[in-house]
Amino acid sequence: MALTYEPIATTTVGTATPSITFSSIPQTYTDLRIVFSGKSTTGLSSLILRLNNDTSTANYYGYNMYSQSTTPTGSFESSLGYINVGAMAVSLNSSVIDIFKYTITTYRALLIRGSNSYTSLNERRASAKWLGTTAITTVTLTSSSNNLEVGSMATLYGIKAA
Amino acid sequence: MPIFGITASQIQGHLVVDSFDSIATISASGLATATFSSIPQTYKSLHIRVGVNDSNNITTGVRFNGDTSASYGASTSMYITTPSNVLGSSSSTTTGTLLSLAPSGYTSSSVFVPSMIDIFDYTSTNKNKLATSIGGLDSFKIYSSEWVNTAAITSITFYIPTGTWGTGCTFELYGVK
Q1: Model pTM score
Q2: A151 → closest Cβ in B3, B85, B106
Q3: Do residues A97 and A34 lie in contact, with contact meaning Cβ atoms separated by under 8 Å?
Q4: Looking at this predicted complex, what is its ipTM?
């Protein structure tokens, strides 16, 4: 029986580096899921996501809900040229990113659930969209302002519907 | 050098790969109601992935076992309507619907608004059932609700009160062992 939830690739950072990239992604699944666990080498950074190496500021949008104090806060992000997955520092960031219907060539929708512990534990939930017009074949996770620490890890899963 | 530490997000994401089965998919194009019936009672929980749009830009509702009565109990939600505001709502009773998913927001047949639903211990016959959902596109919504009924869940119905879902809309049901 074919697996419904299948690991496509895992990358563990062996030498501090800015990015983890999954390329040549098979077009045989319904959705993709990325599970990230890692941190930055120094200072505050953000974990950012790009699809198909697209840096266009017109193509990424995000609606975010996060708890960083006693009052939940929301934000809308655009014109960044990437999707902001969440804050990342020398403490842990763990995030799960679901990319729906990644093989279509219109708006691609993403749902993000993450935790990070910069100054205190911060939960983040978000939706995002990418307006690129090509099927997703490459996904890149990058530390916005410094390197990913050795041991940071990301796994790309394929989810296949019946 | 490994990084030590684990969070709930990791636990949720790193499912054991052979413990997650695709049970059924409904292509909902042109439908106003979609039902998963005769759901196998062999899993621990259920996971549903939704991608919808509709010509009237309205919200998809969810019911268990065809129940349209007032037996849906407490519900609570958090959502963003304007970018900087997170709003919440709660209710002690909800009539006729369990979950109210994120509004489609799109009438285009080429845009699919995603939601993920988790339903826990759905085979139990001695306690009420709880479901949670997250979703949105150009919006974001978290919703949890209780079904005040101890029956095992054997069917799940999605519906919109007006119009039909667009071309390519899908409901995917997965079982988690």
Answers
A1: 0.91
A2: B3
A3: yes
A4: 0.90
